[in-house]
Design goal:
Na:dicarbo_symporter_sf; Proton glutamate symport protein; single chain; globular; membrane; two-stranded antiparallel sheet
Length: 464
């Protein structure tokens, strides 16, 4: 459905108000030395955004407002913010509840409905090649960004004992090998795979089930297909219901993060945080946008479709929280369901663009903090190593930390600077997750665009 002129004007008005609100809020943060004035400016910014958001029914707008309001609660009422984490956790639990049934339903019915099993192999090959190219580019963007900013120079990194652990994660002695990773892809128990939210294992089961159903007689597969189609429709409806809670969960998550971390603890690593976010913007402008132009994916329409899942991922710092809405928005965007149901879940293992960018930034930050100079060849080898070792990190707690520590050991980098990253990891993780979500949405759009001409630009435009 096309957006009306009044709707476009309203969107521009809200965006302008949001920018003004952010500037006012930022001024309030900078004036923290004058508590009364600073708080007044921050509250005024929140109220301004509330006024312009009140009449909108956009999930993105309300999520953005809730994030700003949550940040304010975390700054001025940290005791309250610390108790709001339960709301975010409830939302994440509800999302995890529907992820596995949604993947099973969409992927299985998509494969059977598509019928052409030969194209499934072609789709898998194209998807994996795309993932490898883009994640490698993300690693390179991170290397260039940290080399230019030199954020690690002058940082006094603590000396960390070899056996130190944070959050139950110790320095890994050996990273998961290729053989173990390949074995881990295939489930041995569907219930366990669903219970542990092993997305790739659930996807493998769904592919095998879809291929098997496509090869048996119509009368034998019809009863199960009806059940799966009904389950898929119910899961999409449940997604819409759960997403009404997304703004509240986003505000609660940010309130907890700000209240628990504190703003002052982030200042010594502010340059690193700024480096990451500048690199993330560069990734969007220098990699994502050119890919869209080459693949003839409408840039404005894509960002409009991906904004809601990206905003949810940013606020909750959990890629899985955005998976259902990302699949729904990409299908509405015009990507065939069977493509969406294959590409996006696969991207949670093979296409972590934000995590890849962060890994290269973090590893070279550690070298700079230790006063080590890495040659261009050493950095190239490190990028190749990170490209191979970063696969399969989705769903693993402190996954990027584990990869960074393993890389540090391999390249004789000190672990102290990497442990320092924990102080700002929550802040970086928001942008990292949003970039992961956006990258997976783009992968679905690009791969779907090339599948049998089923995603012509004119069709996409007409669908809006």
């Amino acid at each position: 459905m096309r957006e009306t002129g009044a709707g476009k004007a309203s969107s521009r008005g809200w965006l302008l108000a949001a920018v003004i609100g952010l500037l006012v809020y930022g001024a309030g943060v900078l004036l923290a030395g004058n508590p009364a004035v600073g708080m007044a400016l921050r509250v005024a910014a929140v109220l301004l955004l509330l006024v312009v958001t009140a009449r909108r029914r956009s999930l993105t707008a309300w999520t953005f407002f809730a994030m700003l309001a949550g940040a304010e609660v975390g700054v001025d009422w940290p005791a309250v913010g610390l108790h709001l984490h339960a709301l975010a956790e409830i939302f994440l639990r509800l999302v995890r509840l529907i992820v596995a049934p949604l993947i099973i339903g969409t992927m299985t019915t998509g494969i059977v409905g598509h019928g052409e099993l030969k194209s499934l192999g072609r789709l898998a090959l194209k998807t994996l090649i795309y993932f490898e190219v883009v994640t490698t580019l993300a690693l390179l963007v991170g290397v260039v960004a940290i080399d230019l900013s030199r954020a690690g120079e002058g940082v006094n990194a603590p000396v960390v004992a070899a056996q130190q652990s944070v959050g139950g994660v110790g320095t890994p002695q050996a990273h998961q090998g290729v053989e173990e990773f390949l074995v881990h892809i295939f489930p041995e128990n569907l219930v366990t795979a669903v219970g542990e939210n092993q997305i790739l294992q659930v996807a493998v089961f769904s592919i095998l089930l879809g291929v098997s159903l496509a090869q048996i007689a119509e009368d034998k597969r019809a009863p199960l297909m009806r059940v799966l189609e009904s389950m898929t429709a119910a899961m999409f409806q449940m997604t819409k219901i759960i997403m009404y809670m997304a703004p509240l969960a986003a505000g609660a998550a940010l309130a907890f993060s700000v209240a628990s971390m504190g703003v002052s603890s982030l200042l010594p690593l502010a340059k690193l945080v700024a480096t990451f976010y500048v690199a993330a913007v560069a990734m969007v402008l220098l990699v994502f946008v050119p890919i869209m132009l080459i693949a003839r994916v409408p840039v404005g329409k894509f960002f409009a479709a991906a904004s809601e899942p990206a905003a949810i991922g940013f606020a909750t710092s959990a890629s899985q929280s955005a998976l259902p809405i990302a699949m729904e928005r990409m299908e509405e965007f015009g990507v065939p369901r069977w493509v969406v149901s294959f590409v996006i879940p696969s991207g949670y293992t093979f296409n972590m663009d934000g995590a890849s960018l962060y890994l290269s930034v973090g590893s070279i930050f550690a070298a700079q903090a230790a006063g080590m100079h890495l040659t261009a060849w050493q950095q190239a080898v490190m990028v190749l190593t990170l490209m191979l070792t970063s696969k399969g990190i989705a769903g693993v707690p402190r996954a990027t930390l584990m990869i960074l520590l393993a890389t540090a050991g391999q390249f004789h980098l000190p672990s102290g600077p990497i442990w320092m990253l924990l102080g700002v990891d929550a802040l970086i993780d928001m942008g990292r997750t949003a970039l992961n979500v956006t990258g997976n949405c783009l992968a679905a759009a690009v791969v779907g665009r090339g599948e049998s001409g089923r995603m012509e630009a004119d069709t996409i435009l007409e669908s809006h």
